[in-house]
Amino acid sequence: MKNIKRIMAAVLAGAMIMAFAACDTKETTDDTSSAADSAVTESAASAQESAPAETAGEIKFATDGKLTMATNASFPPYEYYENEKIVGIDAEVAELIAQKLGVELEIKDMEFGSIIGAVQTGAVDMGMAGMTITEDRLKTVDFSDSYATAVQVVIVKEDSEIATVDDLQGKKVGVQENTTGDIYASDDLGEENVKRYNKGNDAVAALVSGVVDAVIIDNEPAKSFVAANEGLKILDTSYADEQYAIATNKDNKALTEAINKALGELKADGTLDEIVAKYIPAE
Ligand code: GLN
Question: What's phi and psi for 8, nearest 5 deg?
Answer without folding.
Answer: -60, -45
